[in-house]
């Protein structure tokens, strides 16, 4: 809270009443002038705004939230802020939210359903004005989210979405990104391409598997179920990635290429190949979804599909705030798909 200081003594913050008394106006007139409503003349608005600036007046956020029945805060549920992709999404979220006067409360699921559920219910109990949600790898039951949505809590899904709740969604073009990554491996001469991915039920997993299959079909390569490895927690635990990669390399017909579906899995897979003394890209060519800037410093570097994470965060937040601030019920929702790009490196 900002206090005003006169002659070295700290006083309570200036209020609407203080401004009204100083200018000989009513508090309602001052309030309308500060909110730039049409009922107040330009001259009076200028008088009030100039004086407010002179005394460094700041509205009381608690009083505002009580009056508007809003907390001016939004909750975010995502996998892990340490993940470079989600860190970029958060930067996008904050860039919009703070400019529009909202605070952002971030929670991490670490890919656990129960933690996601507890976090989101806690956010709802703190009266956040809305939620931005990217589902955990464990989440198959969204009934608790459906209940909150039916009770009027606005929410927007990003990256990992569900069709069980009728609201805005924003995702990357996962099918296109997966197709291009797999096609890159094929053009490098790979004939037996494996796919390392997260939980099968996640929207991103099914979309990326679809793109992978489309590329194989285009180039008349057979789809082999044995080459698909699911990591239940998206590689949150290195043991998951380790087991999956070792199982692939123990196959009679070992893969010569690997398409990986996420940042964490990509970096984890490289660590396993190093431990197995399998040279990349000489013995194994890899391409994957990864937004980490560390890739350019790694040896070998990794060809990757880059998602517009910052833009995704911005658009999701704009969508949510428009829902929150809408004066009328919203019934038309959008599923926005953002383009991806393939960064070719020496992998």
UniProtKB/TrEMBL annotation:
<dbReference type="InterPro" id="IPR010982">
    <property type="entry name" value="Lambda_DNA-bd_dom_sf"/>
</dbReference>
<feature type="domain" description="HTH lacI-type">
    <location>
        <begin position="14"/>
        <end position="68"/>
    </location>
</feature>
<keyword id="KW-0238">DNA-binding</keyword>
<protein>
    <submittedName>
        <fullName>LacI transcriptional regulator</fullName>
    </submittedName>
</protein>
<dbReference type="GO" id="GO:0003700">
    <property type="term" value="F:DNA-binding transcription factor activity"/>
</dbReference>
<dbReference type="InterPro" id="IPR000843">
    <property type="entry name" value="HTH_LacI"/>
</dbReference>
<feature type="domain" description="HTH crp-type">
    <location>
        <begin position="1"/>
        <end position="53"/>
    </location>
</feature>
<dbReference type="InterPro" id="IPR012318">
    <property type="entry name" value="HTH_CRP"/>
</dbReference>
<dbReference type="GO" id="GO:0000976">
    <property type="term" value="F:transcription cis-regulatory region binding"/>
</dbReference>
<dbReference type="Pfam" id="PF13377">
    <property type="entry name" value="Peripla_BP_3"/>
</dbReference>
<keyword id="KW-0805">Transcription regulation</keyword>
<keyword id="KW-0804">Transcription</keyword>
<dbReference type="Pfam" id="PF00356">
    <property type="entry name" value="LacI"/>
</dbReference>
<dbReference type="InterPro" id="IPR028082">
    <property type="entry name" value="Peripla_BP_I"/>
</dbReference>
<dbReference type="InterPro" id="IPR046335">
    <property type="entry name" value="LacI/GalR-like_sensor"/>
</dbReference>
